[in-house]
Write a structure and sequence with these properties.
The structure holds two protein chains of two kinds.
Chain A (H helix, E strand, L loop, with lengths): L1 H13 L5 H13 L1 H40 L8 H39 L7 E3 L4 H10 L1 H7 L8 E12 L3 E4 L9 E6 L4 E10 L4 E6 L13 E2 L9 E6 L6 E9 L9 E5 L10 E4 L3 E10 L5 E6 H13 L22 H8 L3 E8 L2
Parallel strand pairs in A: 7-12
Antiparallel strand pairs in A: 1-12, 2-3, 2-14, 3-6, 4-5, 4-14, 5-6, 8-9, 8-11, 9-10, 10-13, 11-12, 12-13
Helix pairs in contact in A: 1-3, 2-3
Chain B lengths: L1 H14 L3 H21 L4 H20 L9 H20 L16 H22 L5 H10 L4 H8 L4 H26 L1
Helix pairs in contact in B: 1-2, 1-3, 2-3, 2-4, 3-4, 3-5, 5-8, 6-8, 7-8
The chains are: A alpha+beta, B mainly alpha.
Chain lengths: ~375, ~190
C-alpha cells in the first residue's frame, strides 16, 4: 500500500500536477532519500519507454493503414489476384528450400555456361560494333542543342554522369521496356524519353550481358499505363528478303530507317540474330525492327565495322525466351505478370500511320550514374 | 532546393505521425524496395516487413534531438532496407554473398545500432504488457496508450469509482514495471 502511495506521488511529481508546496516537500524528500531518488529516475525512464512504445505502436498502425490504402488504389502492387496469391505463398513456403537449392545449382550451371559463351562468343570481336551512343557523342550534342536537351533530360539528376544511351521499346504497357544490355553498361540508373518528348525515370530491372538484353521498368508518377500496345512482338521468325524498318534514337529525335532482312543468321552464323541490310548508327541499339505489318521481328543491336549498311538484330523469339527464362528463375515474382502483345493493330495501315501510332512506345534510353 | 525543402517537410510530418506525409514517403519508396527484396530471394511479405521496419528506423531518427539527415530520403531508406535484408538473409542461412545493388547506399551502422536497441526495447515492453493478463493490460493500455482519463476508465471497466480504478492501475503498473525491468536488465 505504501508503495502505491509513493508511486502515485512520483507520477504526479513527474507530470507536474503537484502543488508548489507539495513539490518542494517532495524534492526535499528526494534529496534526502537516495532510494526515492532512484525510484523517480527509474520511473521517469519507464515512462519514456512507455511513450516510445506507444509512438512506435501507432506508427505501425499508420503504416499498415497506408499500405492497405495504397494497395487498394493500385499505387503499389503485390502481384496477382488475392485468390491465387495464397496458393503461391503456400507453395513458396513449402518448396522454398528445394527451390533455393535448385536455383543455386541452376545458377552455377548458368554461370558456367555463360562463362563458356563469353569465352567463345563473337560479340567482343572487333569486327562488329555495338550501336550504343558514346558519352562523348552525347556530350557534344549537349553543346549544340542546349535548350532542347535541357528540356529532354530534365529528370536526370544534376551532377549525374551519363555513361551512354540507345533506344528501347515497351514490351508491356505496364512500363516494361526492353533494350540492349550494352546500352546500360557500367551504369545503375536510366532515364527514358518517348517520341513526344515525355520523360520518365526508369530502373534497371534485369540485365543479361550474355544475351545482350535488359529490361527497364518505368518508375514514374507521370507515366500513365496505356491499355494496349499497337504493335505485336512476333513469336515466329521473319522471311528472307522481307522488307523491314527500324525506329530509334541515333540523335535525340526519333529516326526512321528501312532495309531488308538479308540472312537468317547473324555474325559468324549466330542463329539467335538476323543480318539486316539497313543503315544503323550508334544510338540505334535496343531499337525495334518492324516488318510491314507493324510486328516487332527483332532488336537492332550491332553492325559490321567493315561493310557499310550491314547490321545485326536479335530475333524477337529471343525476347520470349528471355522473358520465359526470367519467369522460370526463382526470384521471378516481379516478372510473372509481364504479358507481351501478340496481335498487331497496325496491319494494313501505311507506314506513316503505323509510325504515328508507335511514337509513344519507342524510347530514347539514357544511362547514367549518380555522383 | 525546392525538393530539399519538400523532403524536410515530409520528415517533419513523419515525426508527427502525419498520415499524409507517411503516405507520400511510402508511395515514393515502396516499389523500389519491393523490387529489391523480390530480386534478392524475398517475398511480398518480406518486402512489406522490411520496408515498414525501415520507416520505423527513419521515424526514430527524425525523433532524436541530434537529427541530421545527410542524404536523400530514398537513399537512406534503401540503405537501411539493404542492411535489414542482408541480416535477415544471413539469419535464414540463405545469404549467397551476392546482393544486387540498384541504388547508391550510405553508411547506416550507427543508426542500425540505435534501431536495434529500440527494437529490443519495444519487444520487451510488448512481451511485458502481454504477459500481464487482463484486466491489467487493457487498463494500462487505456491510461498510457489511449490516454483515457480515470473517470472514463472506471466506467469502461465497471469500477464503482475512479479511486478504485486508480488503485488498481497502480497495482498493475508495479507489476508491469517489474516484468519490464527484469527483462530489460537481463538485456543490458
Amino acid at each position: 500500500m505504501e508503495d502505491i502511495v509513493l508511486l502515485q506521488a512520483i507520477e504526479r511529481y513527474l507530470d507536474g500536477s503537484m502543488l508548489p508546496a507539495e513539490k518542494a516537500y517532495f524534492e526535499e524528500l528526494r534529496r534526502n532519500t537516495p532510494e526515492i531518488d532512484q525510484m523517480v529516475v527509474e520511473h521517469n525512464m519507464f515512462l519514456h519507454q512507455m511513450d516510445s512504445y506507444t509512438n512506435t505502436l501507432s506508427l505501425k498502425h499508420t503504416l499498415n493503414d497506408v499500405h492497405a490504402k495504397l494497395l487498394s488504389y493500385g499505387e503499389i502492387n503485390e502481384g496477382g489476384e488475392v485468390s491465387t496469391k495464397g496458393k503461391v505463398v503456400r507453395m513458396w513456403n513449402r518448396y522454398r528450400k528445394v527451390t533455393a537449392i535448385a536455383a543455386c545449382v541452376g545458377g552455377a550451371i548458368a554461370l558456367m555456361i555463360s562463362g563458356l559463351f563469353a569465352y567463345l562468343s563473337p560479340v567482343n570481336n572487333s569486327q562488329i560494333q555495338e550501336l550504343k551512343r558514346e558519352v562523348e557523342y552525347v556530350k557534344s550534342k549537349n553543346k549544340v542543342t542546349d535548350d532542347k536537351l535541357n528540356e529532354v533530360v530534365s529528370k536526370i539528376p544534376k551532377g549525374a554522369v551519363v555513361t551512354g544511351g540507345g533506344s528501347g521499346f515497351l514490351i508491356d504497357s505496364k512500363g516494361y521496356i526492353i533494350t540492349n544490355a550494352h546500352v546500360l553498361k557500367g551504369s545503375s540508373f536510366a532515364n527514358v524519353t518517348n517520341g513526344n518528348g515525355d520523360d520518365f525515370k526508369a530502373v534497371i530491372a534485369f540485365k543479361d550481358e550474355s544475351k545482350d538484353l535488359a529490361i527497364l521498368k518505368i518508375e514514374d508518377e507521370d507515366f500513365k499505363i496505356k491499355r494496349n500496345l499497337p504493335y505485336a512482338i512476333k513469336k515466329t521468325g521473319a522471311e528472307l528478303g522481307e522488307e523491314i524498318y527500324t525506329l530509334g534514337y541515333p540523335r535525340n529525335d526519333l529516326t526512321f530507317n528501312q532495309g531488308f532482312l538479308s540472312t537468317q543468321t547473324g555474325f559468324n552464323g549466330d542463329s539467335s540474330t538476323y543480318q539486316l541490310q539497313i543503315s544503323a548508327n550508334p544510338g540505334n541499339s535496343g531499337g525495334p525492327v518492324f516488318n510491314s505489318n507493324g510486328e516487332v521481328v527483332g532488336i537492332l543491336s550491332t553492325r559490321e565495322k567493315q561493310s557499310e549498311g550491314v547490321a545485326f538484330a536479335i530475333k524477337s523469339k529471343s525476347i520470349y525466351k528471355f522473358i520465359e527464362q526470367l519467369k522460370n528463375t526463382d526470384n521471378d515474382t516481379l516478372y510473372q505478370h509481364i504479358k507481351m502483345p501478340s496481335s498487331s493493330s497496325l496491319k494494313g495501315m501505311n507506314r506513316k500511320e503505323q509510325i504515328k501510332k508507335m511514337e509513344d512506345y519507342i524510347f530514347l534510353v539514357q544511362a547514367f550514374n549518380k555522383k | 532546393m525546392k525538393s530539399e525543402l519538400n523532403e524536410q517537410a515530409l520528415l517533419k510530418g513523419l515525426a508527427e505521425n502525419d498520415s499524409k506525409a507517411i503516405e507520400t514517403i511510402y508511395k515514393e519508396n515502396f516499389n523500389t524496395i519491393q523490387a529489391f527484396i523480390l530480386n534478392n530471394n524475398g517475398s511480398y511479405d518480406d518486402a512489406r516487413d522490411i520496408f515498414q521496419e525501415a520507416m520505423i528506423a527513419l521515424y526514430e531518427k527524425v525523433q532524436s534531438n541530434s537529427f541530421v539527415l545527410t542524404s536523400k530520403i530514398n537513399t537512406y531508406v534503401y540503405s537501411i532496407c539493404r542492411r535489414l535484408w542482408l541480416k535477415r538473409l544471413q539469419q535464414m542461412g540463405r545469404y549467397s554473398g551476392k546482393i544486387e545493388n540498384l541504388e547508391e547506399t550510405i553508411s547506416v551502422d550507427e543508426d542500425m545500432e540505435i534501431h536495434e536497441k529500440r527494437n529490443a526495447e519495444f519487444a520487451i515492453m510488448d512481451r511485458a504488457l502481454n504477459s500481464l493478463g487482463e484486466p491489467c493490460k487493457s487498463l494500462l493500455e487505456g491510461y498510457y496508450i489511449k490516454k483515457m482519463d480515470m473517470q472514463e476508465l472506471s466506467k469502461a471497466f465497471g469500477y464503482t469509482n475512479a479511486d478504485n480504478a486508480k488503485n488498481q492501475k497502480y497495482k498493475c503498473l508495479m507489476r508491469l514495471k517489474k516484468l519490464f525491468f527484469t527483462q530489460y536488465n537481463i538485456g543490458e
